[in-house]
């Protein structure tokens, strides 16, 4: 699944490469997939996109907004898999859930792994969509300050009990983070995934805030995670500290053994010595 850093990298690459291109034909998928969310019929999608120009793309959380000017915005959200740009004459992938050709004969395909939204809205209306409407600030937004973060924790602990992993991955409290990047953030904050956020003192909150902002920034700078692909089909350069490969390696902090646990809908890789 693409998380916030991959969406930022893809949006930047769309702006480098696709911005200004004119759409020759917009097609939806050739491979039935019940977890791809479309809001247009194939004919409608082709008609509404024909002759339109790609504008300046933007990422927010796990969503990418691509203006299809004039008048429309293509929304790609909660996707994983491959979002690839192809030079003229390239081979079309066997399966795809979105296929857009441009007047210069280059094309874009999107093939999602698990699920994902591929929707076209009259520009502005996408902001009313569930999960986009009322989205809280993400770690790359200027509003995501330490003051905002510590207030967010105060608000959350007044409600239900929540763990550090829950803060990072549940209910889109911090939009765009997922199970992958959360593990490195927790390791860098010396926090066990189960650590209750109600216990976090001022210093621990600061360390966690800094780990969120710096980890997201580093993954973006390195072009995404090493197990995801960018718009040009290249893997990202960010090697995760805590993932399935970490079990065979000594902990980068103390040299001890990394444990695998199941917690909150996914595997977690934890150093029981460094993370409490
Ligand atoms: Zn350790």
Concise overview:
The protein has 6 helices and 12 strands. With 276 residues, the protein is an alpha+beta fold. The radius of gyration is 20 Å and the shape is globular.
Your description of this structure?
There is one protein chain. 39% of the residues are buried. By secondary structure, the protein is of the alpha+beta class. The model has no long low-confidence stretch (mean pLDDT 95). β5 (63-69) and β6 form a beta hairpin. It has helices at 4-17, 42-49, 146-157, 164-169, 179-188, 202-221, and strands at residues 23-28, 36-38, 53-54, 58-60, 63-69, 72-77, 82-86, 98-102, 107-111, 116-122, 259-262, 267-270. The radius of gyration is 20 Å and the shape is globular. The chain starts with a helix and ends in a 6-residue tail after the last strand. The strands form three sheets. Strands 2, 3, 4, 5, 6 and 10 form a six-stranded mixed beta sheet that branches. The structure holds zinc ion. Residues 251, 253-254, 256, 271, 273-274 line the site of zinc ion.
């Amino acid at each position: 699944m693409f998380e916030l850093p991959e969406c930022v990298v893809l949006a930047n690459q769309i702006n480098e490469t696709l911005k200004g291109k004119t759409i020759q034909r917009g097609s939806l998928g050739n491979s039935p997939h019940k977890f791809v969310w479309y809001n247009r019929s194939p004919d409608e999608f082709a008609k509404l996109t024909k002759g339109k120009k790609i504008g300046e793309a933007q990422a927010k959380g796990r969503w990418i907004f691509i203006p299809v000017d004039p008048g429309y915005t293509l929304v790609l959200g909660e996707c994983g898999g491959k979002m690839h740009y192809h030079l003229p004459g390239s081979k079309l992938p066997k399966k795809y859930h979105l296929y857009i050709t441009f007047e210069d004969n280059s094309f874009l395909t999107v093939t999602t792994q698990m699920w994902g939204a591929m929707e076209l809205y009259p520009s502005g209306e996408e902001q009313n969509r569930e999960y986009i409407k009322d989205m809280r600030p993400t770690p790359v937004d200027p509003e995501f300050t330490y003051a905002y973060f510590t207030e967010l924790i105060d608000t959350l602990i007044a409600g239900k009990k929540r763990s550090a992993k829950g803060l990072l991955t549940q209910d889109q409290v911090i939009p765009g983070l997922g199970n992958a990047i959360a593990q490195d953030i927790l390791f860098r904050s010396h926090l066990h995934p189960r650590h209750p956020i109600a216990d976090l003192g001022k210093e621990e909150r600061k360390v966690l805030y800094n780990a969120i902002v710096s980890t997201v920034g580093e993954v973006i700078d390195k072009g995404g995670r090493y197990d995801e692909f960018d718009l040009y089909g290249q893997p990202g350069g960010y090697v995760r500290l805590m993932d399935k490969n970490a079990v065979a390696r000594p902990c980068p902090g103390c040299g001890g053994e990394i444990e695998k646990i199941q917690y909150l809908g996914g595997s977690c890789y934890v150093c029981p010595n460094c993370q409490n």
